[in-house]
C-alpha cells in the first residue's frame, strides 16, 4: 500500500471510530432506553446527504481524574451544517454515549463554532440536547464553556431562529441554553429538564419527587410552560422541528418562505356565520375558526398544553407565514391570566423579531380577577402582552369575534395600540365590561334603594347598555374598527388586509434596548 493510500485508510478508520461515539455497548444502552444516538437523530432531521460535519476529531484537554486516559474523537457532540427542505441550518447534537453528553470546554468550543456560523451566515441554529450538564471532571473549564454558549444564545436572539430539542436527561447548564432559545421541544418519558435532580431536591428541601414529576415533558408543557412542544417520540419531535422551520425565515432580515397552496383566497365558510352562540355566556371552539380561515386547515400550535385559554401558533394565509393569536372561549371563557399573557407575549415578540405578520382573533371577557392573579403579578404579566403588541412593527390584523371587554380589548392588538387593520364580526361587543357587570356597578345604589323595583331597573338598564355596546356599531361609528365583516368572509378579508400591509415599514425611536416589564 502506498503512503497516500495508508493515509486515506487511516482517515476512513478514524472517521468510522468517531462515528461510533462511546462505543457499541453504550449505543446499545442508549437504544435500550428508547433513545437514538446523536447521528441517528441528525440523519432524521437533515435532508439526506446534506450534512457537513465539523470538528470530528476534536478531543477534550482535561487531565483531572484520569481523564487523560480516555479520549473520544468528537468529544460527545456532533456539529455541523445541513439542510432542511433545501434551506441551510446549523446543528449540534450531544452524544450521551460519551460521558453522558456532559459539556467539556472543547465541546463548548464546537457548539460555539456552529452558533457563530449560524449568526454570521444568517441561518437557524438547532440543538439536540442530551446532556448531564457541566462535565464534572473539568470544573471551572466546563462552566466557562457554558458562559460562552449562553453569550452566543443571547447574541443570536432575534437574529436567527434558535430551536432546542431535549432528548434525554438535561440538568444544570444543559437547560439554561435551551431556555435562552426561541423554541424548546421535549420527548415524553425519555427527556427531563431540571436545574437539580431529585436527589439534590430531597437533600436541600426534603421534597420527594421523581424525575418525571420534577421535569418531565408533560410537566414542562402544561405547568411551567418551559417547553413549547411535548412529543410522543423522538421521530415526532424531529418532524415538529422540520414543520416549524417551514414557517420561519432564515434570519431577521428575511421573510419566511412562500408555501404554494391550492386553497382559494376567497373561500367562504358559511359555518362561521353561526359559530357564535346566541347566548353570550356559551362557549364555542376557536380552533374551528382558525382551521377555517388558514390555508388547507394547517395550523402548528405552539404551547398547546399551556394556558389553553389562549391559542398561539403558525399557519399560512395565501402562502405567507402568519402568527395566530386567539382567545379560546372554550377554556375559562378565554380570559387573560398570567399564563396566557406570558405565553402570547413571547409568541408575539418572536413573530415581530422575524417579520411574521400577526393575525389576532379576539373573544375575551377581560383579565382574570382575584388575589391569586394579583399576588402573581398579573399587572406586570399582562403588561408584557400589552407591551409586545404595542412594540411590534410587523403587519397586524385583528378580528373581534365576540367579546372585547376592558383592558383585554386594548391588549389584544386594538387599533389604538398600533393595530393596522381591525375588523369585527356583527356579534362583537366592544365595551368596558359585559352588560350585567356594568349595570351592577352603575345602578347598585338605585337598586338597593328600590328593592321592589330592583329587577325591573336591572332589566331596563341592561337592555339600554346592550343596545349601546353589545354590538360593534359604536366602535365602527367612531372609527375604532375599520369594518364590520360577515364571518363567512373572514379568510378573504384577512388575506386581503395582509396583502395591503405587505410593504409596512414602521420605526421605533432609537434606543439601546427596550425595558419590557419582566
Ligand atoms: C461527567 C457525567 C455527567 C457529568 C453523567 N455523566 N453526567 N460525567 N459529568 N455531568 C456520566 C456518568 O458518570 C456515566 O458514565 C455516563 O455519563 C452516563 O450517566 P448515568 O448516570 O449512567 O446515566 P443515567 O442513569 O441515565 O443518568 C443521567 C443523569 C445523571 C440524570 C444525567 O448522570 C446525572 O445526574 N448526572 C449529573 C447531573 C448534574 O448534576 N450535572 C451537573 C450540573 S451543574 P459511565 O462511565 O459510568 O457510564 C451545571 C453547571 C452549569 O451544569 C451551570 C450554568 C448556569
Describe the overall structure.
The protein is built from 20 helices and 17 strands. By secondary structure, the chain is an alpha/beta fold. It has 3 domains: 243 residues, 2-enoyl-CoA Hydratase, Chain A, domain 1 (Alpha-Beta Complex); 194 residues, Alpha-Beta Complex (2-enoyl-CoA Hydratase, Chain A, domain 1), CATH 3.90.226.10; 35 residues, no CATH class. Strands 10, 11, 12, 13, 14, 15, 16 and 17 form an 8-stranded mixed β-sheet that branches. A 7-stranded mixed β-sheet has the order 1-2-3-4-5-7-9, sandwiched between helices. Strands 6-8 form a two-stranded parallel sheet. β2 and β3 form a beta hairpin. α4 runs parallel beside α5, α5 packs parallel to α6 and α16 packs across α18. The longest helix is centred in the first third of the chain and has 17 residues. The radius of gyration is 27 Å and the shape is elongated. The mean pLDDT is 96. Bound molecules: hexanoyl-coenzyme A.
Write a concise synopsis of the structure shown.
The chain is 40% helix and 17% strand.
Q: What class do helices, strands and sheet pairing give?
A: alpha/beta
Radius of gyration: 27 Å
What is the C-level CATH assignment of the largest domain?
Alpha Beta
Number of distinct beta strands: 17
Query: Structurally, how many domains make up the residues?
Result: 3
What overall geometry do the principal axes of the alpha carbons give?
A: elongated
Cofactors, ions, other ligands: hexanoyl-coenzyme A
CATH topology of the largest domain: 2-enoyl-CoA Hydratase, Chain A, domain 1
